[in-house]
Specification:
The chain has 149 residues and is mainly α. It contains six helices and two strands, in the order αββααααα. A hairpin with a 3-residue loop joins strand 1 and strand 2.
Length: 149
């Protein structure tokens, strides 16, 4: 597959994921008559798509994924974790063979990888997150209040 084809696949998936992120918390709500505003959960999703890549670069993929998984009580974190799991274990041809297809536990599978696989999955995750951040910023209006990241 050409580089353009790989990037196009990432972009397509990221757009679909960002649209799902926009619908968190029931989607956009009317406020003050005609003004439509995205939900607090959608704004959190947007905020987390900005911050998670730096967390991956600073602490490593395994640590960042463990953090995101630990915060799954928040709808936005759960959505991002589920989307990364889907992309890396199902959609992405580059890393499909790295995961246990019967029972996918993204954190467990990532920390069990050899160094080559870990780097490849980290690069792939960051590439997807770049697209996801761009689309989330374009689709979701407003900023999250009181981030906990």
């Amino acid at each position: 597959m050409s580089r353009q084809g790989i990037e196009q696949g990432r972009a397509t998936a990221a757009y679909k994921y960002a649209e799902a992120g926009k619908k968190l918390g029931g989607g956009p709500k009317t406020k003050d008559g005609n003004k439509v505003e995205d939900s607090a959960e959608a704004k959190e999703y947007k905020s987390y798509t900005r911050k998670i890549p730096m967390m991956i670069k600073t602490n490593g993929l395994g640590s960042a994924l463990a953090f995101v998984k630990s915060k799954q009580k928040k709808e936005a974190y759960k959505k991002i974790y589920d989307q990364l799991t889907e992309w890396l274990s199902v959609e992405c041809n580059l890393t499909k063979s790295y995961f246990n297809e019967k029972s996918i536990d993204l954190v467990k599978d990532v920390i069990a990888m050899n160094s080559f696989q870990y780097r490849a999955v980290t690069i792939e995750t960051l590439a997807l997150m770049t697209w996801l951040r761009r689309f989330a910023e374009g689709l979701i209006q407003g900023e999250a209040e009181g981030d906990d990241l």
